[in-house]
């Protein structure tokens, strides 16, 4: 089995769909679109099994040379190791489920083939990203997923808003990519290669811990990661990216692409370990992001934007984990998050479709009875997101992070407090959303009930969101470490400082309580005393605060004022190219000289004679001047 | 006062030359201009003869004769041209002969 | 000999297509197309089976021309020349194809000019005699002038004049430098020659070398074009007919880059190294400034033209980075920019044929009617913003990777240029193909002929993106000499 | 040699020339010019060129000036043109050119005075020597002078011939 | 006069005899065709007379003339140019003037003047040659009496030429007074002996420069040029632009060499200022000019500036460049005027730019020739003008005249603008219903002449070696 097949199958299918966009029937498109991902998933599973059985460090396939110039050499090398297997597995499986869902969701879309072409292209690029053995190939996938994200956010191209959102997403992530590119240059400069294993291996010889160079490299890599993963300060694009079709949001902006940053940092963890400053920065970014995004999620009115902010917030948890050195915890949260967030998005999508493309939370409500199946899967998703203790996957993964943010070597009380605050917020916004959608009065008529192709993936994901947590249980609750063991060959185990069971208990209890109290607050706010709460929320100060949070802490405004407006203003000002003025004024000067001289050609004989005399005077004057003066 | 004869002659020629030049510059009547040129040519001829006397060679005087010939030819063609111009413009004003410019 | 044949084929085809064009338009077109394809075939043949083991120079041809001055008809081909020629003939053939329907008046003369430009460009890429180089350098201007001035858009004369004056001014400075070099060489060795190989390693004092180098450099910077000599380019590109824009962007600009690689660096290595920071700075300014201007434009072709300024900044940056990776990137960039920008111009031209405007404010939502063209545009827009998998990425990445070794700060700024590139590139797609379609257009998508052109370009750009190795290997030999 | 004769002749020449350039009436000017030429002839004589002095009187004052006078009379330029001339010769017109010319004169004088050749007596070159030179080494120049005169004659002949139409208009307008 | 003198002066004597003979014929029987043929034959014979003279070079005819390679080469050049101008003249005058025969006499005489200038080594010959040329030109310029402007042009030329001659004479007198010589080598020797350049001699040179500068049409003595070009008959304008200027230049070079002008930086300075001023003035004046004749006039002012750069380079290459440039300039200028001649109708000269609008699409051949000529003036490859400019720049570089070269480059660019503007007009697509006023005559002889000129132009542009060798040989002897 060739690992190369895994990304190749989606690529080929994307190509097929692109070329055959006019001729292929809807069914053919569905078969190619979903089937290829399914096939890819199947191959992935086979290879994973082979890998697990083989006991090797990694399966590496060299699928051809790419660029070789002056000592720089890269190829299409694909790598399957423990980390890639996890990501590949999640991408293909969740991807397949989302594809199946999308075949139902996008049923009436005229550009059906284009949609699947882009989706498959995305999966291919994402798989390349996580399987790349060298950073250039990773960059290839990295940019490829960016492209697909762009294409899919702007899928409904007729609405300019969608295009703006798409463009914003691309440009903002590109800022991060630029940082990452510079990191690549630096890595090449010092290690002479871009192969990841070689870099990781040699890095410890080249740099001592805390070397400014490696700190820079790590920070720049982090820059790439925050761009792609929508972390502070480049988080602003993700909420807008919700303009795309819901399966896209589920696949790209929840489950897979946005976690590429997590993957990148996990993949290059050795570098981060060498650069403690960068690692702390990662944790700080994660902590701040998760809190800020939590507040923003709390006040959104658009169902998808709530989820988007929640995604930002959850990835903040992962970054926090990475920053604390809890590599496998981050990856674990990625897995569970992929499941429940995909589930939530798709369920939300189903709700939206059911309500005739209504996304405003306040126009929903009372859907519990109307959409029974969705209600239940939504509940599972929400529970997992809010980390309801014991039964949800989200609990185990997030709890691990909360605990490690305090106890790990890179942990800190402040991180821990932020994480706990995040837990409270998560509970609040998740269930605010849930209650708003399913409780209260029916506000919009339900016109369409999702079919099987949409529901079955939801059920599967709901199941996964529940059981996936049991592969990794904390000390206090059974102590299963299947997942971290699996990753051990790639990612070192976290070094825990305060290995105290009592404290861990306290932490867990606290987070559980906070999550539940968050739910309680949400219940009070939405179901129990909506009137009183809303009166309270209508207070002017709070009103402003709500707006502020709702606008994502006005980061957009900040960037607009700092970067976008000056750039646009400068470029508009200079549309005619100031430098050109230099040349046109030169031409004008020539014209002026012409005009002046042309005056002397008056046609008057006396004038011409005067010219001769002037010439004579001038010649003699020059003579006298040169000789005597 | 010991005046250098050559210098003195040259100065005289120079003065006459410049007087002719002034005339040609300030006059608008074409015949006057022609006249002034003759003055200048004559001054140049004088300069040649003065130089000739300085060196005691005949070259300068031969040149003077040629200048005379040239002046004659000049005047004859010039007058013919002026006649034509007069027929055309009804005036001898040189400023009228400024149809071409720019 | 085969090198002379390449030039002569074009020359005679030019004359023939003019003569035939009087009677038959199609005949003229076919002659032009066939001659270019023939040349492309020859070059490809050379590429595939060039004599192995002959070292850097695959073919040489030398005949005395004006022995009085030491001028000879000296042609030689190495990997760099070969690549440039392949690009020339490829884009040349496409230019004929895209003019098939667009040019309907004075067809014979059009092809005469087109082939004559290409003939001049071929000469520039082949000649190893500085006089001859200048000769060809100037020779290609006049037909280009006609291409812009006769078949261009509204302000064609202004644009043509501007183009002509700028390049001539640069060219004359180069002439001064060439002659200066000639005499410096003669003073040192007592051999009067314009031969490139003889003039290499001319010993000269640094001040002199600097001035001479500047003479060459300015000519090439104007052609490249680098800020602040770029202002002819937007006008010329905008007003030229599609084929003219393709040849301008795809080929003429490359002669400047080629000149830097072939002449400035090898002839004056020390002086070039001295000025490298400034040149790189100009490159970076070009990248950012060009990108900024591109973002503001509303004329489709003008926008693309400014992207050329931006992209050629990378060439300048890389050329003066003095390491092999950057040089490889530069060579790649020359080719890929030719392809991608040429393709964008072709798309702009095809759009103009359909909706008769270049103002992107009046476009929008064209994807609905022209999905194929939109997809093609998407590919080349992505190429232009440097998406991996397409040729430009390899080029830009190598350039930046190389220039990083030379200058960190400038490289960082140049990398920021990638963000700017993203901004203006996506703006094209957004304004032209996306958004609401307020007008009822009724127009056909790409025709068969256009499809052939576009597919050829797509294949090449993807090939360069995924498998650039043949190109890199070919330019390798040459670069070894340059870098030393 | 530079004696009173020279000074007187030179003064007359200069004064007469000044009169030439300040006259309004062309006839007066021409006559003053004849005076000036005669004075120059004296100077020529003083500078040891008697033959040239004679030629000056005969050819210049005699032939060329007479031609001019005849021409002026033919065109019948009388009072009118004198009036016009008066109008044209305003200080505003002549002051700048005259200043310029005087600067030129100043420069010329200055430059000529820089000459530091040893003072030499005026050497007399008799007509015989001139004749010997003219028909000796310079014989070809004489032939060329013939060509010169031929050009003058042919030119004057062609240009002087009156066009019928123009003549007619001329007669009409001037009511001879 | 010895036999050798006769042979050496063959061309001059042939033409002089022809001049007298034609005059007699005109007196006897006026017939345009016959006179024309006779003149043609005279020119051909004069050209043939150059050949036997080659055997005896260098030959001096003391003290007036010298016949060496340089003067013979230029004699040939002038004769060929005159012959070509003659070829272009027949139709032009046939259509315009009832009395056309005197033209040929005057043309022969003017050519004699130019030839004398070329071979002269003495002030007297210089003066006589110049005046023969000038006085013939008075007649020639005002030749077309039916034309309003020709008188005006004639009188302007006459006045200014006489004035400049007066300056020239006064200058010569000064030089003569303070060196005691009128022959160039004598002056040179006297100056060498003195070991420095006496100020008054310097002043003499300065004043002579005015006379020479006027004929060359260089700043500030250039103002006549456009008016005279516009008013004169086109072949005469071509004559003035080429032969008259060329002969004076040749003279200037000889004079400069004989007096060892390079030893005196003062002279260099004066000429350099004039050269730069000429380049700028010529090009600026031509910039948006609408009259083709005036454009050619202005362009010739600028070209004189370029030529002076070669002159000033102070190296052997400079003189070679000058000679080559002169040849190229002759071909190009006559070609350009030739185009205007064949384009002109019997009623009107084709002198405004508007007459040339879309010419390429109406008369592609004429337009191509004109384009070639203009490009040659602009110095674009494949033309003689390119090699000429190249040669000039080469000389400048060789002489390290960087400042002058820089000026030349700037001016070339300015110049390009108006040449290319003309080309653009010819290639402009005419709007529907647009009619030009001039219906070109397009005589066959004229067309053939243009073909020959174009072939020469491109021939020299592509294969200049033969011409260069010739020039180099000739210049080696001069220096």
From TrEMBL, chain A:
<feature type="transmembrane region" description="Helical">
    <location>
        <begin position="113"/>
        <end position="132"/>
    </location>
</feature>
<dbReference type="Pfam" id="PF00361">
    <property type="entry name" value="Proton_antipo_M"/>
</dbReference>
<feature type="transmembrane region" description="Helical">
    <location>
        <begin position="607"/>
        <end position="628"/>
    </location>
</feature>
<dbReference type="Pfam" id="PF00662">
    <property type="entry name" value="Proton_antipo_N"/>
</dbReference>
<dbReference type="InterPro" id="IPR003945">
    <property type="entry name" value="NU5C-like"/>
</dbReference>
<feature type="transmembrane region" description="Helical">
    <location>
        <begin position="210"/>
        <end position="227"/>
    </location>
</feature>
<protein>
    <submittedName>
        <fullName>NADH-quinone oxidoreductase subunit L</fullName>
    </submittedName>
</protein>
<feature type="domain" description="NADH:quinone oxidoreductase/Mrp antiporter transmembrane">
    <location>
        <begin position="132"/>
        <end position="425"/>
    </location>
</feature>
<feature type="transmembrane region" description="Helical">
    <location>
        <begin position="28"/>
        <end position="53"/>
    </location>
</feature>
<feature type="transmembrane region" description="Helical">
    <location>
        <begin position="451"/>
        <end position="471"/>
    </location>
</feature>
<dbReference type="InterPro" id="IPR018393">
    <property type="entry name" value="NADHpl_OxRdtase_5_subgr"/>
</dbReference>
<feature type="transmembrane region" description="Helical">
    <location>
        <begin position="416"/>
        <end position="439"/>
    </location>
</feature>
Automatic annotation (TrEMBL), chain B:
<keyword id="KW-0472">Membrane</keyword>
<comment type="subunit">
    <text>NDH-1 is composed of 14 different subunits. Subunits NuoA, H, J, K, L, M, N constitute the membrane sector of the complex.</text>
</comment>
<keyword id="KW-0520">NAD</keyword>
<keyword id="KW-1003">Cell membrane</keyword>
<keyword id="KW-0560">Oxidoreductase</keyword>
<feature type="transmembrane region" description="Helical">
    <location>
        <begin position="31"/>
        <end position="51"/>
    </location>
</feature>
<keyword id="KW-1278">Translocase</keyword>
<keyword id="KW-0812">Transmembrane</keyword>
<keyword id="KW-1133">Transmembrane helix</keyword>
<dbReference type="InterPro" id="IPR001133">
    <property type="entry name" value="NADH_UbQ_OxRdtase_chain4L/K"/>
</dbReference>
<comment type="similarity">
    <text>Belongs to the complex I subunit 4L family.</text>
</comment>
<feature type="transmembrane region" description="Helical">
    <location>
        <begin position="63"/>
        <end position="83"/>
    </location>
</feature>
Automatic annotation (TrEMBL), chain C:
<keyword id="KW-1133">Transmembrane helix</keyword>
<feature type="transmembrane region" description="Helical">
    <location>
        <begin position="303"/>
        <end position="322"/>
    </location>
</feature>
<feature type="domain" description="NADH:quinone oxidoreductase/Mrp antiporter transmembrane">
    <location>
        <begin position="128"/>
        <end position="416"/>
    </location>
</feature>
<feature type="transmembrane region" description="Helical">
    <location>
        <begin position="275"/>
        <end position="296"/>
    </location>
</feature>
<dbReference type="InterPro" id="IPR010227">
    <property type="entry name" value="NADH_Q_OxRdtase_chainM/4"/>
</dbReference>
<keyword id="KW-0560">Oxidoreductase</keyword>
<feature type="transmembrane region" description="Helical">
    <location>
        <begin position="406"/>
        <end position="426"/>
    </location>
</feature>
<keyword id="KW-0812">Transmembrane</keyword>
<feature type="transmembrane region" description="Helical">
    <location>
        <begin position="80"/>
        <end position="100"/>
    </location>
</feature>
<feature type="transmembrane region" description="Helical">
    <location>
        <begin position="373"/>
        <end position="394"/>
    </location>
</feature>
<feature type="transmembrane region" description="Helical">
    <location>
        <begin position="446"/>
        <end position="466"/>
    </location>
</feature>
<comment type="similarity">
    <text>Belongs to the complex I subunit 4 family.</text>
</comment>
UniProtKB/TrEMBL annotation, chain E:
<feature type="transmembrane region" description="Helical">
    <location>
        <begin position="268"/>
        <end position="288"/>
    </location>
</feature>
<feature type="transmembrane region" description="Helical">
    <location>
        <begin position="103"/>
        <end position="120"/>
    </location>
</feature>
<keyword id="KW-0812">Transmembrane</keyword>
<feature type="transmembrane region" description="Helical">
    <location>
        <begin position="70"/>
        <end position="91"/>
    </location>
</feature>
<dbReference type="InterPro" id="IPR010096">
    <property type="entry name" value="NADH-Q_OxRdtase_suN/2"/>
</dbReference>
<comment type="similarity">
    <text>Belongs to the complex I subunit 2 family.</text>
</comment>
<comment type="function">
    <text>NDH-1 shuttles electrons from NADH, via FMN and iron-sulfur (Fe-S) centers, to quinones in the respiratory chain. The immediate electron acceptor for the enzyme in this species is believed to be a menaquinone. Couples the redox reaction to proton translocation (for every two electrons transferred, four hydrogen ions are translocated across the cytoplasmic membrane), and thus conserves the redox energy in a proton gradient.</text>
</comment>
<keyword id="KW-1133">Transmembrane helix</keyword>
<feature type="transmembrane region" description="Helical">
    <location>
        <begin position="6"/>
        <end position="27"/>
    </location>
</feature>
<feature type="transmembrane region" description="Helical">
    <location>
        <begin position="126"/>
        <end position="145"/>
    </location>
</feature>
<feature type="transmembrane region" description="Helical">
    <location>
        <begin position="34"/>
        <end position="58"/>
    </location>
</feature>
<feature type="domain" description="NADH:quinone oxidoreductase/Mrp antiporter transmembrane">
    <location>
        <begin position="120"/>
        <end position="415"/>
    </location>
</feature>
């Amino acid at each position: 089995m060739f690992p190369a097949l895994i990304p190749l199958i989606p690529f080929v299918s994307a190509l097929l769909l692109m070329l055959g966009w006019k001729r292929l029937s809807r069914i053919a498109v569905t078969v190619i679109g979903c089937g290829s991902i399914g096939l890819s998933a199947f191959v992935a599973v086979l290879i994973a099994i082979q890998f697990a059985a083989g006991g090797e460090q990694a399966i590496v396939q060299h699928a051809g040379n790419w660029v070789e110039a002056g000592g720089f050499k890269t190829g299409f090398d694909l790598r399957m190791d423990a980390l890639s297997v996890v990501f590949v597995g999640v991408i293909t499986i969740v991807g397949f489920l989302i594809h199946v869902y999308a075949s139902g969701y996008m049923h009436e879309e005229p550009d059906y083939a284009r949609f699947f072409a882009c989706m498959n292209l995305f999966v291919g690029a994402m798989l390349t990203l996580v399987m790349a053995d060298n950073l250039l190939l990773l960059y290839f996938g990295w940019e490829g997923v960016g492209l697909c994200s762009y294409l899919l956010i702007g899928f409904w191209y007729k609405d300019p808003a969608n295009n703006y959102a798409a463009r914003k997403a691309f440009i903002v992530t590109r800022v991060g990519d630029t940082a990452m590119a510079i990191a690549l240059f630096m890595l090449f400069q010092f290690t002479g290669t871009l192969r990841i294993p070689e870099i990781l291996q040699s890095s410890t010889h080249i740099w001592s811990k805390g070397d400014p160079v490696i700190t820079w490299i790590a920070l720049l890599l982090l820059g790439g990661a925050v761009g792609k993963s929508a972390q502070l300060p480049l988080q602003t694009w993700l909420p807008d990216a919700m303009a795309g079709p819901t399966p896209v949001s589920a696949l790209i902006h929840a489950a897979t692409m946005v976690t590429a940053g997590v993957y990148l940092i996990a993949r290059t963890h050795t570098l981060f370990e060498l650069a403690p400053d960068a690692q702390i920065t990662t944790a700080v970014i994660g902590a701040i992001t998760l809190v800020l995004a939590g507040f923003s999620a709390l006040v959104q009115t658009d169902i998808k934007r709530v989820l988007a902010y929640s995604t930002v917030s959850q990835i903040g948890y992962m970054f926090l984990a990475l920053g604390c050195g809890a590599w496998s915890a981050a990856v674990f949260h990625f897995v569970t998050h992929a499941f429940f967030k995909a589930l939530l998005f798709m369920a939300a999508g189903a709700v939206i479709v059911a309500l005739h493309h209504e996304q405003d939370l306040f126009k929903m409500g009372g859907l519990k009875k109307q959409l029974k199946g969705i209600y239940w899967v939504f509940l599972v998703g929400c529970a997992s997101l809010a980390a309801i203790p014991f039964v949800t996957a989200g609990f185990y993964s997030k709890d691990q992070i909360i605990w490690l943010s305090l106890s790990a070597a890179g942990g800190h009380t402040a991180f821990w407090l932020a994480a706990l605050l995040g837990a409270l917020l998560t509970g609040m916004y998740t269930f605010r959303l849930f209650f708003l959608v399913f409780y209260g009065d029916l506000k919009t008529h339900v016109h369409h009930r999702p079919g099987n192709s949409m529901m079955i993936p939801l059920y599967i994901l709901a199941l996964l969101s529940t059981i996936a947590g049991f592969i990794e249980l904390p000390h206090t609750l059974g102590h299963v470490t299947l997942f971290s063991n699996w990753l051990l060959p790639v990612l070192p185990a976290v070094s825990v400082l305060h290995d105290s069971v009592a404290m861990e208990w306290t932490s867990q209890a606290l987070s559980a309580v906070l999550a539940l109290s968050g739910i309680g607050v949400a219940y009070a706010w939405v179901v129990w005393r909506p009137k009183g709460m809303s009166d309270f929320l209508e207070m002017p100060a709070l009103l402003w605060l709500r707006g502020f949070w709702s606008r994502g802490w006005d980061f957009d405004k900040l960037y607009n004022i700092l970067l976008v407006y000056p750039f646009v203003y400068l470029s508009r000002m200079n549309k005619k190219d100031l430098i050109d003025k230099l040349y046109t004024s030169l031409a004008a000067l020539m014209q002026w000289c012409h005009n002046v001289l042309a005056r002397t050609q008056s046609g008057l004989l006396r004038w011409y004679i005067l010219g001769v005399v002037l010439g004579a005077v001038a010649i003699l004057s020059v003579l006298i001047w040169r000789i005597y003066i | 006062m010991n005046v250098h004869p050559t210098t003195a002659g040259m100065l005289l020629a120079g003065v006459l030359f410049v007087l002719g030049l002034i005339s040609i510059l300030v006059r608008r009547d074409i015949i006057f201009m022609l006249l002034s040129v003759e003055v200048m040519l004559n001054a140049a001829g004088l300069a040649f003869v003065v130089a000739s006397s300085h060196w005691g060679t005949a070259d300068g005087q031969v040149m003077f004769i040629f200048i005379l010939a040239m002046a004659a030819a000049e005047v004859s063609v010039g007058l013919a041209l002026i006649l034509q111009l007069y027929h055309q413009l009804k005036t001898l004003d040189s400023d009228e002969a400024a149809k071409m410019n720019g | 000999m085969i090198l002379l044949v390449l030039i002569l084929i074009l020359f005679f085809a030019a004359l023939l297509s003019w003569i035939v064009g009087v009677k038959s338009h199609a005949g003229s077109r076919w002659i032009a197309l066939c001659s270019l394809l023939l040349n492309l075939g020859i070059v490809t043949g050379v590429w595939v089976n060039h004599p192995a083991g002959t070292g850097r120079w695959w073919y040489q041809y030398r005949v005395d021309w004006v022995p009085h001055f030491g001028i000879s008809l000296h042609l030689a081909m190495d990997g760099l020349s070969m690549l440039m020629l392949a690009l020339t003939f490829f884009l040349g053939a496409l230019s004929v194809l895209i003019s098939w329907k667009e040019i309907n008046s004075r067809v014979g003369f059009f092809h005469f000019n087109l082939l004559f430009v290409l003939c001049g460009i071929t000469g520039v890429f082949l000649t190893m005699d500085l006089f001859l180089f200048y000769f060809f350098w100037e020779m290609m201007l006049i037909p280009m002038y006609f291409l812009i001035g006769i078949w261009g858009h509204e302000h064609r004369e202004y644009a043509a004049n501007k183009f002509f004056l700028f390049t001539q001014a640069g060219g004359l400075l180069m002439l001064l430098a060439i002659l200066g070099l000639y005499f410096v060489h003669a003073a040192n060795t007592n051999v009067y020659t314009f031969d490139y190989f003889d003039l290499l390693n001319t010993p000269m004092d640094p001040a002199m070398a600097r001035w001479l180098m500047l003479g060459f450099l300015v000519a090439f910077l104007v052609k490249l074009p680098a800020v602040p000599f770029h202002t002819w380019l937007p006008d010329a590109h905008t007003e030229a007919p599609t084929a003219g824009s393709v040849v301008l962007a795809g080929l003429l600009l490359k002669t400047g880059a080629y000149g830097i690689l072939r002449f400035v660096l090898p002839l004056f290595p020390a002086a070039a190294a001295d000025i490298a920071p400034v040149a790189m700075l100009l490159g970076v300014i070009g990248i950012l400034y060009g990108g900024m201007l591109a973002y503001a434009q509303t004329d489709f072709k003008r926008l693309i033209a400014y992207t050329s300024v931006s992209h050629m900044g990378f060439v300048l940056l890389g050329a003066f980075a003095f390491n092999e990776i950057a040089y490889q990137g530069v060579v790649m960039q020359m080719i890929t920019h030719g392809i991608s920008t040429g393709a964008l111009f072709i798309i702009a031209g095809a759009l103009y044929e359909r909706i008769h405007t270049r103002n992107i404010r009046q476009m929008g939502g064209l994807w609905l009617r022209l999905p194929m063209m939109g997809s093609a545009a998407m590919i080349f827009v992505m190429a232009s913003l440097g998406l991996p998998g397409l040729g430009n990425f390899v080029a830009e990445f190598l350039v930046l990777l190389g220039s990083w070794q030379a200058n960190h700060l400038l490289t960082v700024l140049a990398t920021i240029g990638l963000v700017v590139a993203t901004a203006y590139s996506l703006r094209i797609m957004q304004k032209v193909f996306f958004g609401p379609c307020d007008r009822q257009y009724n127009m056909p998508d790409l025709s068969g002929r256009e499809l052939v052109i576009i597919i050829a370009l797509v294949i090449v750009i993807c090939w360069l993106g995924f498998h650039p190795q043949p190109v890199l290997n070919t330019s390798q030999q040459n670069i070894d000499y340059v870098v030393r | 040699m530079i004696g009173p004769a020279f000074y007187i002749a030179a003064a007359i020449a200069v004064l007469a020339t000044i009169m030439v350039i300040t006259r309004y009436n062309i006839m007066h000017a021409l006559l003053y010019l004849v005076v000036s030429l005669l004075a120059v002839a004296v100077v020529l004589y003083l500078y040891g060129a008697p033959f040239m002095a004679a030629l000056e009187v005969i050819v210049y004052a005699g032939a060329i000036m007479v031609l001019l006078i005849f021409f002026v009379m033919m065109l019948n330029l009388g009072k009118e043109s004198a009036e016009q001339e008066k109008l044209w010769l305003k200080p505003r017109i002549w002051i700048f050119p005259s200043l310029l010319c005087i600067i030129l004169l100043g420069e010329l004088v200055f430059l000529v005075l820089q000459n530091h050749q040893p003072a030499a007596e005026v050497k007399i070159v008799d007509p015989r020597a001139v004749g010997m030179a003219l028909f000796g080494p310079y014989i070809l120049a004489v032939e060329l002078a013939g060509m010169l005169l031929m050009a003058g004659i042919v030119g004057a002949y062609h240009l002087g011939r009156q066009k019928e139409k123009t003549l007619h208009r001329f007669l009409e307008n001037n009511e001879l | 006069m010895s036999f050798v003198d006769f042979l050496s002066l063959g061309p001059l004597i042939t033409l002089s005899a022809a001049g007298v003979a034609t005059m007699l014929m005109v007196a006897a029987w006026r017939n345009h065709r016959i006179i024309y043929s006779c003149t043609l034959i005279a020119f051909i014979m004069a050209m043939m007379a150059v050949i036997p003279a080659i055997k005896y070079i260098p030959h001096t005819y003391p003290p007036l003339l010298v016949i060496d390679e340089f003067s013979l080469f230029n004699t040939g050049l002038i004769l060929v140019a005159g012959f070509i101008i003659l070829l272009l003249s027949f139709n032009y005058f046939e259509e315009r003037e009832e009395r056309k025969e005197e033209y040929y006499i005057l043309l022969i005489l003017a050519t004699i003047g130019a030839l004398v200038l070329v071979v002269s080594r003495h002030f007297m010959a210089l003066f006589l040659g110049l005046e023969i040329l000038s006085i013939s030109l008075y007649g020639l310029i005002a030749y077309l009496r039916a034309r309003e402007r020709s008188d005006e042009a004639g009188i302007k030329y006459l006045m200014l030429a006489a004035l400049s001659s007066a300056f020239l004479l006064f200058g010569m007198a000064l030089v003569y007074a303070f060196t005691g010589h009128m022959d160039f080598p004598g002056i040179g020797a006297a100056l060498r002996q003195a070991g420095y350049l006496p100020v008054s001699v310097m002043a003499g040179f300065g004043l002579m420069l005015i006379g020479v500068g006027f004929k060359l049409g260089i700043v500030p003595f250039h103002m006549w040029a456009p008016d005279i070009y516009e008013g004169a008959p086109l072949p005469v304008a071509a004559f003035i632009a080429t032969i008259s200027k060329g002969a004076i230049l040749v003279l200037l070079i000889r004079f400069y060499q004989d007096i060892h002008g390079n030893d005196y930086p003062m002279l260099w300075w004066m000429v350099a200022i004039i050269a730069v001023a000429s380049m700028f003035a010529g090009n600026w004046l031509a910039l948006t000019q609408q009259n083709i004749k005036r454009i050619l006039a202005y362009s010739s002012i600028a070209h004189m500036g370029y030529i002076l750069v070669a002159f000033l380079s102070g190296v052997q290459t400079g003189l070679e460049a000058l000679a080559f440039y002169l040849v190229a300039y002759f071909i190009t200028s006559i070609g350009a005027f030739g185009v205007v001649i064949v384009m002109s109708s019997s009623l009107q000269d084709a002198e405004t730019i508007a007459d040339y609008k879309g010419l390429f699409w109406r008369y592609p051949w004429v337009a191509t020739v004109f384009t070639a000529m203009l490009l040659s003036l602009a110095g674009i490859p494949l033309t003689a003008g390119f090699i000429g400019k190249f040669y000039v720049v080469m000389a400048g570089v060789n002489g390290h005249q960087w400042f002058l070269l820089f000026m030349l480059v700037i001016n070339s660019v300015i110049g390009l603008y108006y040449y290319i503007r003309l080309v653009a007009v010819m290639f402009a697509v005419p709007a529907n219903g647009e009619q030009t006023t001039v219906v070109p005559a397009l005589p066959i002889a004229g067309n053939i002449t243009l073909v020959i000129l174009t072939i020469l132009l491109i021939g020299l542009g592509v294969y200049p070696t033969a011409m260069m060798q010739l020039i180099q040989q000739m210049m080696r002897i001069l220096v």
